[in-house]
Design goal:
alpha/beta, Spore Coat Polysaccharide Biosynthesis Protein SpsA, Chain A, UDP N-Acetylglucosamine Acyltransferase, domain 1, 2 domains, 8-stranded mixed beta sheet, binds guanosine-5'-diphosphate-alpha-D-mannose, binds magnesium ion
């Protein structure tokens, strides 16, 4: 099966980290975000990942020059201009010649969602598309979904004000899609999956969903980017090239390559990106330190 992975956004909420590279090329513990995402797809039987690229495609192309990532074949679909989520999926599917049922997903999602069950649910219902749902406390920054007990989606509302959210089940950013959906998406203009294509499928009664309450993080904000590192590392992770002075105290943190922590410094619930440093006696807590940056007392 092919998977289309959306990685073309500007990553504005993660600026300045995303000024030089797309968010999916930011490191999460020991490798770029995209390798975690594509690796999980590969573990579920995906044989080709079609990367839907827009912003800084060169960073992906130079990181994976042989066209393979985490053991999965890549296809690069570079948009001439940002086409928004549905436009990007349609452009990528047409460019890569995707003709069978495929997976589409946002490139910033980490989860243990049972993808094979999602595919089975999709095949069993005959829906045009089946979306994964996860519960969250504050649905207002997500696509909020209401569905029938049989899984048919009744409403899809993208980013409603908190008090108007019709449920706390949200679009987890992973879909199984029938190729006929591509024909619904107009060419050559931006089209939003969440604001246009899904609501159209809801009206036609052809959008289904499957809910699962498990591990799920959209790593697209600073707080979530920090949280996902803590979850993946599950304790402290120190890269072999990092330099930790005797007497430095590190707790529940990720220290990346060539980062340095001087004597007497304390680093807690934090991420030191490559080549960053923390000076003697400085205190760093719940923070992400940018590459090459230096924290003084
Ligand atoms: N190729 C391409 N072109 N990719 C894009 C574009 C575009 O114009 N715009 C955004 N993307 C990519 C981003 O890089 C990201 O991987 C994905 O599409 C989703 O964009 P985000 O900016 O991360 O969206 P969001 O987090 O606000 O909301 C989306 O994800 C939520 C769950 O994580 C929506 O799908 C919500 O409905 C959903 O709940
Ligand atoms: Mg996101």
């Amino acid at each position: 099966m092919d998977a289309l992975v959306l990685v073309g956004g500007l990553g504005t909420r993660l600026r300045p980290l995303t000024l030089t590279r797309p968010k999916q090329m930011l490191p999460v513990v020991d490798r770029p975000m995209i390798e975690h995402v594509v690796g999980r797809l590969g573990a579920h039987g995906v044989t080709r990942a079609v990367l839907s690229l827009g912003y800084r495609p060169d960073v992906f192309e130079s990181a994976y020059p042989d066209g393979r990532c985490a053991g999965v074949e890549l296809f690069y679909a570079v948009e001439p201009e940002p086409l928004d989520t549905a436009g990007a999926i349609a452009f990528a599917a047409r460019s890569a010649g995707v003709a069978d049922t495929f997976i589409a997903m946002n490139g910033d999602v980490f989860s243990d969602f049972p993808l094979l069950d999602l595919i089975h649910a999709h095949n069993a219902s005959g829906a045009a598309a089946t979306i994964a749902l996860t519960p969250v406390a504050d649905p207002s920054r997500y696509g909020v979904v209401v569905c029938d007990p049989d899984g048919r989606v009744r409403a899809f509302v993208e980013k409603p004000p908190a008090e108007q959210a019709p449920s706390r089940w949200i679009n987890a950013g992973m879909y199984v899609v029938d190729p006929s959906v591509i024909d619904l998406i107009p060419r050559d203009r931006p089209v939003s999956m969440e604001r246009e294509t899904f609501p159209t499928l809801v009206e036609q009664g052809r959008l289904h969903a499957m809910a699962h309450d498990g591990f799920w993080i959209d790593a697209g904000t600073p707080a979530a980017y920090l949280e996902v590192q803590m979850a993946v590392a599950d304790g402290t992770h120190i890269h072999p090239t990092a330099k930790i002075a005797p007497g430095a105290r590190i707790a529940n943190s990720v220290i990346m390559d060539h980062a340095e922590v001087a004597a007497g410094a304390r680093v807690e619930d934090a991420v030191l990106l490559p080549h960053s440093s923390v000076e003697a006696n400085a205190d760093v807590k719940r923070a992400i330190i940018s590459p090459d940056h230096h924290i003084a007392v």
